[in-house]
Amino acid sequence: MRKYIVIYRSVLMENLQYAASVAMGFVSYFIIIYIFLKLWNSMYAEPGSLIAGYGREQMIWYVMITEMIWFGARSGAVTRQATADIRGGNIAYQMNKPYHYALYILARYTGEWSVRLPMYFVLAVAMGLVMVGPLSGFGPFAALAAVVSILLGITINGVFKLCISLFSFWIEDTNPFQWLYDKLILVIGTIFPLEIFPRAMQPFLKLTPIYTVCYGPAKLTVDFTPEKFLEILGAQLLYLAVGLGAMFLVYGKGVKKLYVNGG
Amino acid sequence: MEVINAQDLSKTFRVKRKEKGMRGSFQAIFHPQTQMIRAVDQVSFSVEEGEMLAFIGPNGAGKSTTIKMLTGILYPDGGKVEVLGLDPTRKRKQLAYQIGTVFGQKEQLWVHLTPYDNFRFFGAVYDLTDSETERRIGELSEIFDLADFINTPVRNLSLGQRIRCEIVASLIHRPRVLFLDEPTIGLDPVVKESIRSLIRQMNREFNTTIFLTSHDVGDIEKLCRRIIIVNSGQIVLDDSMEHLKKHYMGRETLEDIIMEIYQSEGKVAMDS
Fold first, then answer.
1. Is B75 part of a structural domain of the chain?
2. Nearest chain A residue to B89, by CA
3. Engineered SS bond to B157: which of A71, A79, B161, B206, CB 3.0-4.6 Å?
4. Gap between the Cα atoms of A129 and A125, Å rounded
5. CATH number at residue B9
6. Strand partners, B38
7. How far apart are CA A25 and CA A19, in angstroms?
8. Least CB–CB distance from B101: residue in A3, A96, A99
């Protein structure tokens, strides 16, 4: 475990040098949140009205949390780097080190979001407090549950994106699959809570990573109940176990197919 | 003691083929064609502890593929290989603690970190304690004369400085066998000579086995006492440097001898 912590620490040192460039992404975050603020303000024209069980503040905070996860979890390690390593053969030079390549990439991913996520967290909280005001009913238990759930959600996201990248052992280009996954999370997961979708669709959406990556953490932030926390935590742990199992399986099979050319 | 033993080691790659032009591109969609390339063909050899061996051949001869099988990166299709008594593909992680690799064309250092931070990182990766790592960095920094740039980010180092750091990173865990794949590529003659002298010193002081591939005849002549030449995936010569020179007496340089052997073996296979 120590070596993965050292990998994490090294990436953290590396990424801290680029904290200023991460802050450039704040503009996109601000614009998205501003648009949704205007949208929901017009949708909630009548004070105290509810949409799919969410009040105005809850709905806007929901989008702020999901977008914070989306921007905070952006990573080159689990996507571009893993794919380029496999397709270009660089993985060969990682494999003869005494660590597991997939865990190495996850440690790098964790180092990346450890810089980005806190920065977006500060921005989200500042914008939320200024533009919407504090969330009613948000206490220390909800905060703790939200933090646990956000960290698990981001880890699950990394594991699934890495699984997609590992298919580069067999196929030339995994970008279309990354694109589909990203759009699933971005379009369906970050913008609206699952309760907005037709009732018939909801059980299917709960089976997708949306439930564990975006919906769960945001729901616990805006509408915490101990029962909901246990349900989401259980789903996240199950998803993480399945995701890690798939990751080790795909890597184990793929590495035997490795073809490294060019001397 | 034998540290490397390869028996009938073989590796075949499936390579995509495409007919020329646009028509060929469309055909490749519906009828993809592949060709089997035998990169390494029943290669057998062994290496004793402390030996300095040159494993050379023209581009595409199968040198790098062989190194990658010896270090557990590629799975052989046939034959048997043991490095330090371990099967490299089954015991890759265990073997990693005992071998070091330098691939001259690939970077293993983290370019945004300093060499010192890199060495600390590699020390932790190889499970050395902090004090062991510090001791080792001090030792190697002195041998490889790194003091002037050990705290400069790797991205700002010259190629020669970087290669010295690459070699140190590979030696941090005291490997018993060091695989060097073209370690002096792109270096000027002065830096080349200094790298060679460091490799010699390491072999002398720590009895590290050196397995070297290089197209640079100077590396081979000045470092190695034994030479294996491969061509089209097969060993065409395995001899001591001394015996080779005697056998080809009359040729002016080692380069002439090697050229003659390459040419007599004919066409080369694809680059592996």
1. yes
2. A256
3. B161
4. 6
5. 3.40.50.300
6. B12
7. 10
8. A96
- Lowest-confidence region among A85-89, A120-124, A129-133, A148-152: A85-89
Q: Which two tokens stand for residue A133?
A: 């005001």
Cross-chain residue pair B125–A95, CB shorter than 8 Å: no
Using CB atoms, which residue from B14, B75, B92 is nearest to A96?
B92
**Interface probe, candidates A96, A99, A100, chain B, greatest B C-beta count within 10 A:** A96
Instruction: Give the residue numbers in A contacting B (CB under 8 Å), as ranges.
Output: 2-3, 6-7, 10, 13-14, 17, 90, 92-93, 95-99, 256, 258-263
Task: Find, in chain A, the residue whose alpha carbon is nearest to that of B104.
Answer: A263
Task: State pTM to two decimals.
Answer: 0.81
Q: Measure in Å the smallest separation between the Cα of A69 and chain B Cα atoms.
A: 26
Q: Say which DSSP state A51 is in.
A: B
Task: Name the domain count of chain B.
Answer: 1
Written as six digits, the tokens of A221 are 């932030």
Segments forming the whole domain that contains residue B27:
2-98+175-264
**Containing H/E element for B229?**
strand B226-231
List of residues 6+ apart from A236 with CB closer than 8 A = A149, A152, A153, A156, A212, A216
Q: What is the pLDDT of residues B240-254, one digit of tens each?
A: 888 777 776 667 677
**pLDDT single digits (tens) B217-238:** 888 888 888 999 888 889 988 9
